[in-house]
């Protein structure tokens, strides 16, 4: 029997999957393709925004090879139980954000105030770059005070609008 142990850097909770197909993911398991002299081929299916940082094995085998096909690997000369560990990483990028532009359309408008109100009412939560853009007063949380800062900015008040209109780099 072939077992896959997958470590995910987001949850930091490794878990085992008994393989029954050639395509593997956190929610999908199946038989690997077994060919030739004890070879096992498998493909790791990644969620968007993730990459494979390593694939290692332990147990009865000779080596693990990248087949050259995207996210597809081969364990050669399998002689017994083999545990495969696939470690993934979330891709992080830096995005320039206009503080106050919570809908990320490039302009600060009353629509951004509405987005903060919807967030505060828990109708539609802001995440990632939109969440960073919504924290106009820089206190680390999104509140109606942030919506008020945008309103003051739009009304062209000389102060009281926090960081609205400034750009910052945000890791998302």
**Proportion of helical residues:** 10-25%
- Mean pLDDT across all residues, rounded? 77
Biggest β-sheet strands, sense, barrel: 5 strands, mixed
Name the assembly state. Answer: single chain
List the total number of helices. Answer: 3
> Which structural class do you get from the secondary structure elements?
alpha+beta
Give the tally of structural domains: 2
Uncertain ranges: 1-31
Give the helix/strand layout.
Elements lengths: L1 E7 L6 E4 L4 E2 L8 E3 L3 E6 L5 E10 L3 E4 L5 E5 L5 E9 L3 E5 L11 H11 L7 H7 L9 H11 L12 E5 L1
Parallel strand pairs: 1-9, 3-5
Antiparallel strand pairs: 1-2, 4-5, 5-8, 6-9, 7-8, 10-11
Helix pairs in contact: 1-3
Write a compact overview of the structure shown:
The protein is 17% helix and 35% strand. It contains three helices and eleven strands, in the order ββββββββββαααβ.
Task: Provide key terms for this protein.
rod-shaped; 2 domains; alpha+beta; 35% strand; Type 1 dockerin domain; disordered N terminus; 11 strands
């Amino acid at each position: 029997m072939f077992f896959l142990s997958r470590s995910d850097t987001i949850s930091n909770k490794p878990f085992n999957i008994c393989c029954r197909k050639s395509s593997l993911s956190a929610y999908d398991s199946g038989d690997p393709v077994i060919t030739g002299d004890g070879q096992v081929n498998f493909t790791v299916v990644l969620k968007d925004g993730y990459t494979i940082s390593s694939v290692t094995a332990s147990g009865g085998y000779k080596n693990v090879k990248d087949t050259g096909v995207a996210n597809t690997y081969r364990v050669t000369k399998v002689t017994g139980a083999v545990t495969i560990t696939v470690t993934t990483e979330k891709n992080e990028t830096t995005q320039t954000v206009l503080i106050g532009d919570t809908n990320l359309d490039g302009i600060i408008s009353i629509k951004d105030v509405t987005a903060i109100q919807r967030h505060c009412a828990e109708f539609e939560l802001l995440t990632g770059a939109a969440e960073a853009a919504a924290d106009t007063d820089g206190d680390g949380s999104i509140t109606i005070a942030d919506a008020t800062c945008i309103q003051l900015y739009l009304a062209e008040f000389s102060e009281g609008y926090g960081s609205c209109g400034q750009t910052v780099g945000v890791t998302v």
